[in-house]
Amino acid sequence: MIKQLMAGIALAAAALCGPAQAQNYPSKPVTIVVPFAPGGATDIMARTLAERLNKRLGQPVIVENKPGAGTMIASEHVARAQPDGHTVLLAASSLGIAPALYAKVNYDPVKDFTPISLVASVVHVLQVHPSIPVKNVAELIAWVKANPGKANYGSVGAGTSTHLESELFNTMAGVKMTHVPYKGSAPALMDLVGGNLQVMFDAWASSGPFVKDGKTRLLAVTTAQRSKLLPDVPTVAESGLPGYEAMPWLGFVAPAGTPAAAVNRFHAELMEVLKEPEVQDKFRALGLDIIGNTPQQFADFIKRDIVKWAKVVKDSGAKAD
Predict the structure, then answer these.
(1) What is the CATH number of domain 124-221?
(2) What are the UniProt keywords, alphabetically (predicted)?
């Protein structure tokens, strides 16, 4: 009888544990670690969310920038942090791509993190120099095949998303465009505008002004569905290369072992913040499409993304700078 009573008490305590943890979280300031330098789109996004999460969580939400090593410095830092929900990483696509690109990565993108939510996609576009006589992806593929050795594409660096998106295009289209890596978007765009490059995948946030001025010609967005930011622009898939999809992303993860109650509380408040009109306007201005999904959906997405880009890296022989 006593054993049954004790078992009943233990079960009741376990049932109450989750709600109690949820009520107690957060018990101190929450730090959002950003793997990029201050001032960029990801940093501005993080600070926009932090300001609003601060009010909803009832504790200060601090942004800490830890740039460098292809986002691995920030990722490793959070992987080793106390798993209590008070340190989270605003991860980028590179979280899962890095192990395929670098010889040594001191974290496992699946085992060392607890996904919270995929927050947004970075709107990337495919564009060409206006002198190239093409108006869609199908025509671009035909032109590259008819003009071997004449198509040079720029990227913001070897092993970056713009490089891998282009190599995925090469593989799926059965073409060979020559890679010219740059240290950032600005110098690559200058060479595209100047005609030294013929093709470029890039973020809409940086390329948009050149497209609007007619200095480059926009062909498509890289995502599987049309972007809410550019609803009239077709996807690469519907414009001539079926099955193509490339979506640079940003999302929150916590250290592995973070209690479900903390993850769920952070997730719930984040979902409410993403509904705010001011936040949505800010994201659009940054060239981002808001997504927002469940921790399990994000976990499944990360696993698929790792497999996809590891194959692209292997097939292309891409190496990080």
Answers:
(1) 3.40.190.10
(2) Receptor, Signal
Cβ contact 75:89 at 8 Å:
yes
In tens digits, the chain (321 residues) has pLDDT values of 444 444 444 444 444 444 444 569 999 999 999 999 999 899 999 999 999 999 999 999 999 999 999 899 999 999 999 999 999 999 999 999 999 999 899 999 999 999 999 999 999 999 999 999 999 999 999 999 999 999 999 999 888 899 999 999 999 999 999 999 998 899 999 999 999 999 999 999 999 999 999 999 999 999 999 999 999 999 999 999 999 999 999 999 999 999 999 999 999 999 999 999 999 999 999 999 999 999 999 999 999 999 999 999 998 888 775
29-122+247-316 with 124-221: one CATH topology? yes
Instruction: Please report the sign of the dihedral spanned by the C-alpha atoms of residue 290, residue 293, residue 298, residue 300.
Output: negative
Give domain limits for the chain.
Answer: 29-122+247-316, 124-221
Query: Which CATH superfamily includes the segment(s) 29-122+247-316?
Result: Bordetella uptake gene, domain 1 (3.40.190.150)
CA 228/CA 26 separation, integer angstroms: 34
Pairing verdict, β 124-128 and 199-203 = antiparallel
In this structure, the strands spanning 113-122 and 288-290 are antiparallel
CA distance 133 to 143: 8
Place of tokens 């921790």: 295
Q: Could you tell me the pTM of the whole model?
A: 0.88
